[in-house]
Every structure is written in structure tokens, then in C-alpha cells.
Write a structure and sequence with these properties.
By secondary structure, this protein is an alpha/beta fold. Helix content is 42%, strand content 19%. It is built from eleven helices and eleven strands. Helix 2 links the parallel strand 2 (32-39) and strand 3. Helix 9 packs parallel to helix 11 and helix 10 (258-282) runs antiparallel to helix 11. The radius of gyration is 20 Å and the shape is globular. 39% of the residues are buried.
């Protein structure tokens, strides 16, 4: 088997349906299998797959233990020499998967391959390429800064696809569409389970680079990524925002030590406090527009201050 496509579903059944259709349409020149694990959302995915895609291997998790653990469990059911970890809210464009696979097959140095992620509106997503996290680039990871190519002023924020003529090395590719050699993934023990969600792709890419392999982006490969569809509701969106902060805190503590992690939390507290001050000042005038922002930044402020965060699913110990 050349390739195993592993997809973790969480309340994304209809996006998943379109994703699988696009895989079958454009992945025809290599032997492949698709493995779908539903992470305890019970959204009818199993029935949909049985009726529409009976050849897909389906696994039902009875409990959501996080993205990394779900992928690692699905990996145990795979047999491909290469693995593509793919989000359900994606759609394959042309022969992009085959382009990524061919690159990994022909490059002894490459361990991971990524692609250009294109949003549903046709705009390039900036998280196609990720730098190793630092406090600075987490505070100033703003779209306008990347577009202005202020890499020298804010170390760690990369320009977008500086070498569009061919594959090039990066720190990290986004886990929404990450292809890796099976032997490397197995040797590393899969995705690190330190995180519930987010940062596991950054951690994996870091460890692959530490083993002497390269992490590459192939600009000619493009995959549509609608992004955040399983977290589109307000409560789920807030959960996602806090989990991102938690995952970065865990990453910093793991690789830079507890003092650096605490400094990150303190910096987030200052930013959240400033944002809350602005929002509260404007709230009487633009109440409806700032209600969601108020919830978001008050939750971030509470987390960074070490206070309980009242969002369903947030782990209090973090």
C-alpha cells in the first residue's frame, strides 16, 4: 500500500463526504486506503460511510481524548508506506496528493511534505507555513505583518512562499494536510500526546527535523481548506481559542522550560487586558458587534490569570 489517508472527524460529516469524494476523484495513480475515525461526535458519519463509501475503514471513538491520540489510534489500523493526515473540511485540488507523495518517494532527505492551503474563498491561508513558536511571533502573528514581509523586525514570522518555483524547507507545515513517511512516524511514536489539540503538528515537525530529516512545502500542491468548520459555533470557537493558548503553553514548557512558559502566559495576560479595555470602552456604542469579542478576550484573560475558564470541555488543570 502506497498511502494511507487518515481523517479525524468531529461534527463534520458533510464536509467529510465531499472530502472523500475529492480523494477518490484525484488519487488514482497510487494504491491507497482511507481511514476515518469519529472522535465521539456521533454525527452519523458511520452510517454515511457505510452507505456511500463502504471501502473506507471507519473507527468510532467512544470518548474524545484529543486529536493526537485519535490520529495515533487510526494509524494503528493503517498499512501505507506513507501517511496523509487530513482534516475533514478539506477538498483535494487536482493531483496535489500525488504530487506530495511523489516528492516524498523521490527525496531521501524529506520526512514530511505539506502544501498550499487555500480557503473556501480562494485566498491562501497563512498557516500553510508555521515557524517554531516563540513568545514574540505568538503575540504578533498577524496576517497584515506576514503580508508586509516583516520577518526581520519580528523574528519567526515567515514571508509567504518565498520560493514558489519548487519545494522548500520550513519549520512546520500545518496538520490540516500533513504527509509523512511511515517509518519516521512509527519511530517517533506518532503524534505527541502532550496536547489535546493544536501544536502536535509543530512538535512532530520539530522532532522530525531533530532526526535529520527535512520538512518541506510543495507550492504546486494545493488543497482547499475551509477551516474551523467543526468549531464554528460560538462556544466551540471559544474552546478552540483557549485550547490554542493551552497547547502553546505546554509546548513552551516542554522545549523552553517553565519560566519561558510563564512569561508567555504573562504576555498573553497583558495583551488580553489591553484588548478588554478597548472592547469595554466601545461596548456601549457597538454592543452587538463586540459581544463575542468580549467573551473571547475575557476567557483568554481568565486563563492567563490562572482563573477558571467557563467553557465546556476546557481542562481545568491547564
Amino acid at each position: 500500500m502506497d498511502l494511507s489517508v487518515i481523517i479525524i472527524n468531529w461534527n463534520s460529516r458533510e464536509y467529510l463526504r465531499n472530502c472523500i469524494r475529492s480523494i477518490y476523484r484525484h488519487l488514482t495513480n497510487y494504491s491507497s486506503e482511507i481511514i476515518v475515525l469519529d472522535n465521539a461526535s456521533y454525527d452519523g458519519t458511520g452510517k454515511m460511510l457505510r452507505n456511500s463509501f463502504p471501502s473506507v475503514t471507519f473507527i468510532q471513538n467512544t470518548e474524545n481524548n484529543g486529536f493526537a491520540r485519535a490520529n495515533n489510534r487510526a494509524f494503528g489500523h493503517s498499512s501505507g508506506d506513507y501517511l496523509l493526515f487530513l482534516n475533514p473540511d478539506t477538498k483535494i485540488h487536482d493531483r496535489s496528493i500525488e504530487t506530495m507523495l511523489q516528492f516524498l518517494k523521490t527525496s531521501d532527505r524529506a520526512g514530511i511534505a505539506g502544501c498550499k492551503l487555500i480557503g473556501g474563498s480562494g485566498v491562501l491561508q497563512l498557516n500553510s507555513i508555521l515557524s517554531s513558536p516563540t513568545i514574540i511571533n505568538q503575540l504578533f502573528d498577524l496576517e497584515i505583518l506576514q503580508k508586509l514581509y516583516l520577518r526581520r523586525l519580528l523574528k519567526g514570522i515567515p514571508p509567504l512562499f518565498p520560493k514558489p518555483d519548487g519545494p522548500f524547507e520550513v519549520d512546520t507545515v500545518c496538520g490540516a494536510a500533513l504527509m509523512i513517511r511511515r517509518d519516521i512516524f512509527a519511530a517517533l511514536g506518532g503524534f505527541p500526546t502532550d496536547y489535546f489539540m493544536f501544536s502536535e503538528d509543530i512538535d512532530l515537525c520539530r522532532r522530525v527535523r531533530q532526526q535529520g530529516f527535512g520538512v518541506y512545502v510543495i507550492p504546486s500542491a494545493q488543497i482547499i481548506h475551509y477551516g474551523g468548520q467543526s468549531s464554528s459555533k460560538v462556544e466551540a470557537g471559544l474552546f478552540t481559542v483557549i485550547q490554542m493558548k493551552i497547547s502553546r503553553f505546554i509546548y513552551f514548557k516542554k522545549y523552553h522550560g517553565p519560566l519561558y512558559a510563564k512569561a508567555y502566559k504573562a504576555a498573553i495576560f497583558i495583551v488580553a487586558l489591553c484588548r478588554m479595555t478597548i472592547i469595554l470602552a466601545l461596548l456601549p456604542v457597538l454592543k452587538n458587534r463586540f459581544t463575542v469579542s468580549l467573551r473571547k478576550w475575557s476567557s483568554i484573560l481568565a486563563w492567563s490569570a490562572g482563573l477558571p475558564v467557563r467553557i465546556s470541555g476546557i481542562r481545568p488543570q491547564e
